[in-house]
Amino acid sequence: MKKMAVLSLTAGLLSASTLALATPDPEDAIDYRQGIFTAIYWNFGPMGDMMKGKLDWDGKDFSRRAANVATLSTMPLEGFIPGSYSDDDSDALPAIEKNWDDFNERMTAFQESAAFLAEAAKSGDKASVAPAFMDVAKSCKGCHDNFKD
Amino acid sequence: MKKMAVLSLTAGLLSASTLALATPDPEDAIDYRQGIFTAIYWNFGPMGDMMKGKLDWDGKDFSRRAANVATLSTMPLEGFIPGSYSDDDSDALPAIEKNWDDFNERMTAFQESAAFLAEAAKSGDKASVAPAFMDVAKSCKGCHDNFKD
To answer: What value, to the nearest 5°, has the Cα angle with vertex B36 and ends A89 and A24?
Structure first.
C-alpha cells in the first residue's frame, strides 16, 4: 500500500496530470479506509490503555485523541464502495453491500458515540468518561462482528 | 500493513489487553502517518482534478475535501518518531531527525496553508480558490523535495 500511496501522492502533486479518478479505484478505496482505521486505532489504543490503567491517565491527551477519533469516524464510510470487498485485500465482508442500511446505521452510531465521547472527554475526568468510552468500543465491536472477516 | 492494523484493532477493542504501547512502535508510527497521507491524497487528488478541469467543478465537494485535508494535516507529525526512518518501510529520510526544526516548520506551513484553503473554499468559487490550492501543493512539494526519498 505504502509505495502506491506515496507514488500516487507524488505524481498527483508534482506533475501536470494526477492519478485520481472521478470514480475511485476499489484498491484506493481500501487503502483509504484502512488508513483511516489505522489512524483511529493509533488514537484509540492509548485511550484504552489509559482507561485500563496500563498508561497513566492524562485527561488532556485523552481529550485530544478523542477529538481525533470523532473527526476520523466521519471519514471511512465513503471508502466502502462497490468492488472493494476482495478477500485478498480487505477483511470487509460483501455483507456490507447486501445490508447497506444496517452497516450505514452502525457507522452512524460509531460517529455519534465518538462525538459524544469527545465532548465528555473535555471534562478530563476518567470515571465520568468511562461509559462513553465503552459505548464507542461497543460500536466498533458491533460492526466487526457483523461485517468483518 | 492492513493485516497488522486490523489484527491490532480487533485485539485492542475486543480483549482485556491491548497492543498499544506507551511509546509507539516505529512500525506503527510509519503505518499511522502513511495512513494519514493516504487519506490526505484521497481528498487532495480529486481537488487537483477539479482545479485542472479533469473533473467538473463541485464547490461543495471541493470545500468538504479541503476541510478534511485541513483536519488531517494536523495529524501526521506525531508519527515521525525516532527509529521510523527505515529504508525498507518508509521513504521518509533520516534528514528529518537531523533537521527537525526545518521539518517542523514545513509541516506547520502545510497545516496553515491547508487551513487557509479550507476557509477560502467555503466561497465555492474556483478562480478565487486556485492560489490557495497552489500554496498547499507547493508546501507538499517543498517537504518532499527535502525529506522524502
So the answer is: 50
The string of pLDDT tens digits covering residues A36-56 is: 999 999 999 999 999 999 999
Is the separation of the CB atoms in B65 and B41 below 8 Å? no
A96 touches A103 (CB < 8 A): yes
CB contact under 8 A, B5 and A45: no
What pLDDT digit, counting tens, does each position of A52-74 carry?
Answer: 999 999 999 999 999 999 999 99
Chain A residue whose CA is closest to B140: A13
Contact A19 B45 (CB under 8 A): yes
Q: How far is CA B71 from the centre of its chain?
A: 9
Model ipTM? 0.84
SS3 A129: helix
Kindly report, residue by residue over B31-68, the tens digit of the pLDDT.
999 999 999 999 999 999 999 999 999 999 999 999 99
Predicted structure pTM score = 0.85
B81 reaches A (C-beta below 8 A): no
CA A140 – CA A149 distance, rounded (Å)? 14
- By Cβ distance, the residue of B13, B19, B55 closest to A22 is B55
Chain B residues 95-134 within an 8 A CB cutoff of chain A: none
Contacts of B2 in chain A (CB under 8 A): 1, 30, 34, 89-91
The three state secondary structure string of chain B is CHHHHHHHHHHHHHCCCCCCCCCCCHHHHHHHHHHHHHHHHHHHHHHHHHHHCCCCCCHHHHHHHHHHHHHHHCCHHHHCCCCCCCCCCCCECCHHHHCHHHHHHHHHHHHHHHHHHHHHHCCCCHHHHHHHHHHHHHHHHHHHHHHEC
Residues of chain B positioned with their CB less than 8 A from the CB of A48: 12-13, 18, 20
Residue B84: all three cell numbers together? 521510523
